[in-house]
Amino acid sequence: MAKTFDRPKALTDKPFHYCPGCTHGIVHRLVAEAIDALGIQEKTIGVAPVGCAVFAYDYFDVDMLEAAHGRAPAVATGIKRVKPENIVFTYQGDGDLASIGTAEIVHAANRGENITVIFINNAIYGMTGGQMAPTTLIGQVTTTSPYGRDPKVAGYPLHVSEMLATTMGAAYIERVSVHDVPNIKKAGKAIEKAFRNQIEGKGFSMIEVLSTCPTNWGMAPVDALGWLKDNMIPQYPLGVYRDKEEEAKAQ
Amino acid sequence: MAKILMKGNEAIAEAAIQAGCQAFFGYPITPQNEIPAYFAKKMPKIGRTFLQAESEVAAINMIYGAAATGTRVMTSSSSPGVSLKQEGISYIAGSRLPCVIVNIMRGGPGLGGIQPSQSDYFQATKGGGHGDYHLVVFAPATLQEMADLTKLAFDVAEEYRVPAMILGDGILGQMMEPVEFSDYTPRPKADMSWAATGNDGSKPRSVINSLYMEPSELESMTRDLFATYGIIAERETLVEEYHCEGAEIIVAAYGTVARVVKSVIAQLDKEEGAPKVGLIRPITLWPFPAETFAKAAAQDSVQSFLTVEMSMGQMVEDVQLAVNGAKPVRFFGRTGGMVPTAKEIKDEILSICKGGAR
After folding, report:
1. Could you give all domains of chain A from N- to C-terminal order, each with its CATH number?
2. Thiamine pyrophosphate enzyme TPP-binding domain: from which residue to which, for each copy (chain A) (predicted)?
3. Residues of chain B contacting A77 with CB distance shorter than 8 Å
4. ipTM score of the complex?
5. Do A42 and B207 touch (CB under 8 A)?
6. pTM of the entire structure?
7. B71 vs A74: CB contact, 8 Å cut-off?
8. Of B8, B1, B5, the residue nearest B33 (C-alpha)
9. What are the Cα distances from residue B97, in Å, to A94, B157, B196?
10. Contact (Cβ atoms closer than 8 angstroms) between residue B279 and residue B242
11. Do B66 and A82 touch (CB under 8 A)?
12. Could you read off the pLDDT of B314-336 as tens digits, one per residue?
């Protein structure tokens, strides 16, 4: 019987360590499919974060670097500036990118670094066991906001896509979700565009992917997908926040 | 090539360019600002990279990324900025990446001051960041050495896949001296096949990483690293012995302070009845030239050691370890940006003699 569904070439055969129902696996696949579709596997260098995706270097079948917590955009800058012919991407979670790594992501975007950033927003710290993230929703219970996130104490959910869209250097910023099939397809297209932008030298592209963390949210995987749709999307509306090219056309 | 009169900071930058440094990433801090300024002016004109990072933290991580591609890269800073770089330096050491880091020291702790100091000796030689690792630390005392040791630092870093540091101070960075740039003979190009430059499937893919979930793997990696350090200690230790033959007192000093000590020795040489004083000047602070000190301690003529530093006493601990109780080891230091004068050092030497150490 002919195979109709296969592993993308840009993924290794190492089994993912992610929890059941976690959407990292989906996003890894989308990134690998984009690399395959664009035929850039041989020249791609990925930068893994600190967080649940720390072992991303085991899964993407390309040259990989493991960065310190939050520093992936600076690491990617270093690679891209000396090897502009390579395709460089970072894959970061919300603790990594939106908390400890805010300086690095803001300035990489503002410099218009010609890199691709995949930003996983699941509103919680996964690897360390469910602590409050900058993206945690108001009232959301985590181990470090056991009575629900109180903005008087812990501030408000950080809207990274909206914030980076204000930088003059960012070329493309889009927020997508992977809670159902139509959205997964949209996310795949957005991720491919973010890589194509780099090939075409358009500059900094970031795709924010709303994701689930069933384990630390304390939900069954299917319930977690519903919770994302009902609670995260209203707080983090999907859509394109910056498209320099389209803005130039419109003017 | 004719000698060029330049600042120490400029000599480092020019030497790095000549050594094939392809990229510089840094963040402004006094008293090393001439280094980034020199790169900013020169690098774009020769098709190389200069980038002012948003912080020292970002700069050292840009170094991590660029070094991972097998490219010669440098960053520079001064004490408080070097503290910020320690996380990245630890990752670079753990990931076995070569690079050159310059610290033009100023006074500390905290924001400290902007005047010259040697109070980052512990940070530079004992690790600085977390984990089991060392930097190869070069301590120039002249501008000529700033140039030559910078070139050597790139070669050593690549040969052993370790980060190397040039540890200067505000005086060396800011002072002007003639520098000759044709003295240095580069080493053969090291094997860079480990670098991450994209993978066409012809070799295993490169994973630049310092994470080991298995303690036994991390231990084994660390043992490999320390085996390399052993080879470095054997082959790369540099030291100057000055007037040590028959000396009664051996002064231990590096960098700027060693220059002052040499002028003290010159003065004492002219004085009748003055004690005979020698200088041991470590040029590599790590690896530390312990053997040279041990040998000196075994000499009958040597009565005692005096370590002089622009700190409250840091290298003195390595001198004590090397001398291992064979002879007394005394310390004199000024700190906070104060530079010991020739008179102070001379008085200290004479007071040791009066104290019956002769």
Report:
1. 24-250 (3.40.50.970)
2. 60-209
3. 51, 58, 62, 65
4. 0.96
5. no
6. 0.97
7. no
8. B8
9. 28, 8, 11
10. yes
11. yes
12. 999 999 999 999 999 999 999 99
